[in-house]
Write a structure and sequence with these properties.
The protein has ten helices and nine strands. About 35% of the residues lie in helices and about 15% in strands. The protein has one domain (about 1-245): TIM Barrel, CATH 3.20.20. Helix 1 (about 15-25) links the parallel strand 1 (about 1-5) and strand 2 (about 30-35). The radius of gyration is 17 Å and the shape is globular. The protein is of the alpha/beta class. The strands form two sheets. Strands 3-2-1-9-8 form a five-stranded parallel sheet. Strands 4-5-7-6 form a four-stranded mixed sheet. Bound molecules: zinc ion. Zinc ion binds near residues 7, 9 and 89. Zinc ion binds near residues 9, 56 and 89.
């Protein structure tokens, strides 16, 4: 069961829009994990048949979202009040965090923060936590653009055919904009910004660094192209199916 996800990681709206229009062009579906308030979120939220919007809380030191688990989560939920799922930035996770989510954030039903690169036949996994002993559904994911970019032996021309179990892909809009092949490309681009926030970067800032060969964007396009034969699901559709509830899309 395939899902396309994006961690927006403070990307500019035009890069997020690029991802959304690729998904729409191939009549696919996708989930965006959101880091910051931005006008494009409202249009993603409106297109509920195609897009889901979840949380991308940043619990790292110096986070602009807050200083504690709860202030960060409260901040993210102010941005996306309807969120049902999360993936933590930098995959920060701990039992106390998930206990807090179980007890204090009942609308969050699933977590997608567990990366198991290239594993096949992954399944949703229930975990019961907190004083409430509430169930959280954990959906492990097996592919991420910035990780595979540095993976020994990875090729962006690798096949995109269907695999057994969960196939959850994680892209970042800035890597779609750059068509990133190696992370050195991204690092050069970041250095060129001289401290300009990523959210404020323009297509002109990115243009000199765009990869013309195979990279994250061309791989996403092939995945979406092939996806016309392989339906892709929003994260909460997979959660609903796992929980045996009526899926609103099927
Ligand atoms: Zn992130």
């Amino acid at each position: 069961m395939r899902a396309i996800t994006f961690d927006i990681d403070w990307a500019p709206d035009w890069a997020i829009e690029l991802c959304a229009s690729l998904v729409a062009e191939f009549e696919s579906r996708a989930t965006f994990f959101v880091t910051h308030q931005s006008p494009i979120l409202r249009s993603l939220e409106r297109d509920t048949s195609r897009f889901e919007v979840g949380l991308h809380p940043n619990f790292l030191q110096g986070s602009t979202q807050g200083g504690t688990f709860s202030t960060v989560l409260d901040h993210c939920l102010e941005i996306v009040p309807t969120a049902r799922t999360l993936r933590t930035h930098a995959l920060m996770q701990s039992t106390p965090l998930f206990e807090l989510v179980a007890d204090r954030y009942p609308q969050i039903e699933s977590d997608v923060s567990l990366l198991l690169p290239f594993h096949e036949d992954l399944r949703p996994t229930d975990i019961y936590l907190g004083r409430s002993n509430r169930r959280l559904v954990r959906l492990p994911y097996n592919w991420e653009d910035d990780i595979v970019a540095e993976w020994p032996g990875w090729s962006w021309t690798n096949e995109t055919k269907r695999k057994a179990g969960l196939e959850i892909y994680d892209f970042h809009p800035i890597h779609i904009a750059l068509n990133t092949d190696r992370m050195e490309r991204y690092r050069s681009f970041k250095a060129s910004l001289n401290g300009k926030p990523l959210t404020e970067t323009t297509p002109q800032d990115v243009a000199p660094f765009v990869n013309r060969g195979e990279g994250a964007r061309s791989y996403l396009q092939r995945l979406l192209q092939y996806g016309s034969d392989v339906p892709s699901f929003k994260i909460s559709d997979i959660t609903d199916l796992h929980l045996g509830q009526e899926c609103k899309v099927l």
